[in-house]
Amino acid sequence: MNFAGRAHRRTDVAIIGAGILGASVAYLIASFSKLKVTLVESEMHAGAHSSSRNTGVIHRPFYLNPSKKAVFSRAANESFPLWKEMSAVHGLPWNRVGTLEAALDGEGLKSIENYGRFALANGMDKNEFQILDKSEMAAVEPSVACEGAFFSMNDTCVSFGEYTRKLLDLSSRDSMDIMFGQTVIEIDPQDGILIIRDHAGKTGLLEARCVLNVSGGEALRLARISGVAREFSVLHFRGDYWKVGQGLSKPPSHNIYSVPKHSEYPFLDPHYVIRHDGSAEVGPTASVVSGPYKYPMGDGDLRKGPVDLFSRPYMPKVRLFCNREFLSLIREEWRSSVSRSQMARRVQKFLPGMDRRYLTTRGLSGIRHSLVDRSGFVPEAITVTEGRSFHVLNYNSPGATGAPAYAAYVIGKLGFSGLIDSKKMNLTGEKEKLWGRSVDNLFSVMGF
């Protein structure tokens, strides 16, 4: 790299990405250590993409198979009381409506029985959930048609975008700087040096003891710049929602999901979700798009970005697109995205009273970034280290739900790798801060 003539800044930890995971890591390090943190974000504000463009539900981990998603399920369970505390202390939206996962057939009934076992294995209390038969479900939600349901009582609708911004506000009062409008264009992982470019095209250097890449849709690109993760490809799936207006007789008062039929793919059958402000939407779809910022036309955040659909390696994606079942699902998802009639028909499977006329306008669209390798879709988040760089890949649903605890897990890995000095983490002397009474146990549970 040619460093001559470029502005040069130094920090202990450089975090790339001001999404909810980047904000959680930044808050924990800045608030509970003596390390200097610098957050680098290409947008002009925090949480611009997946952190603000999601279902907005804090899920309890009843549907996560602990043998396949052990870290995600543990993170989701440990993070729930932390989000609840944050909402109470800072007056953020907290709309506990609960989620009913509806079984539409015999296979679905088997799945909700498994959910009961998953829930207990993942740390949920037995009083947090119920398994309802058909008549019990009809008494709870008479407008929903199903054979039975899993009722997760504590699922809560929030604004993860507000959480992200509040965490960064709290972090900046300690030892953290935020560099908005700065895109990372090169990484020297051995020396911990980033070349960054602002929106005017001016470049500069940031040198760090530790470089942490938690940039969501850009994470794989930056990992490859660092010389790692060459075996992975990424597919981007845009999730579109439709807003539900007036007309539905006895609209549900809970989130209504149906048991997904194709759990091996990153597709959720459409669901009815209540937002933190009480409004309702149905979705999402899962339409393949070419890059991490390919929102619908007319979306204010539509912009150019990398085109990953045709990037190397090709074979993991070729195998998927030669799969007839996968292609059939892709077509169905696309039709639901462009046609409210198609979306209404899919929702009618569990909410018979839904009509296309009740779907008024489009809701917010978000994009999920799914890693694929030669075996197919990668089920869990991946962490990769190279020199002074540490990369978190495939951090998606339910990533926002478990962000605080997963951040502790990441910090533990940074300490184990020697990228940060664990002795500088003050886990016992900051009880007055947000999460201060829980943070030492949090690090312990997540393997610090």
Major sheet description: 8 strands, mixed
Unreliable spans are 1-5
Structural class: alpha+beta
How much helicity do the residues have?
25-40%
Rounded to the nearest angstrom, the distance between the terminal CA atoms is 35 Å
The count of strands amounts to 23
Mean pLDDT: 91
Please identify the top-level CATH class of the largest domain. Alpha Beta
CATH superfamily of the largest domain: FAD/NAD(P)-binding domain
The assigned CATH architecture of the largest domain is: 3-Layer(bba) Sandwich
Give the tally of structural domains: 2
CATH fold annotation of the largest domain: FAD/NAD(P)-binding domain
Beta-strand fraction estimate? 25-35%
List the helices and strands and how they pair.
Layout lengths: L6 E10 L3 H12 L5 E5 L15 E2 L11 H21 L4 E2 L2 E5 L2 H16 L7 E5 H7 L7 E5 L3 E2 L2 H12 L4 E5 L1 E7 L4 E6 L4 E11 L5 H7 L7 E7 L2 E3 L10 E4 L12 E4 L5 E4 L3 E3 L25 H7 L2 H15 L1 H8 L11 E4 L3 E8 L2 E2 L4 E5 L2 E5 L9 H14 L22 H7 L3
Parallel strand pairs: 1-2, 1-12, 2-9, 5-15, 12-23
Antiparallel strand pairs: 3-8, 4-8, 5-7, 6-7, 10-11, 11-12, 13-18, 13-20, 14-17, 14-19, 16-17, 20-21, 22-23
Helix pairs in contact: 1-5, 1-10, 2-10, 8-9
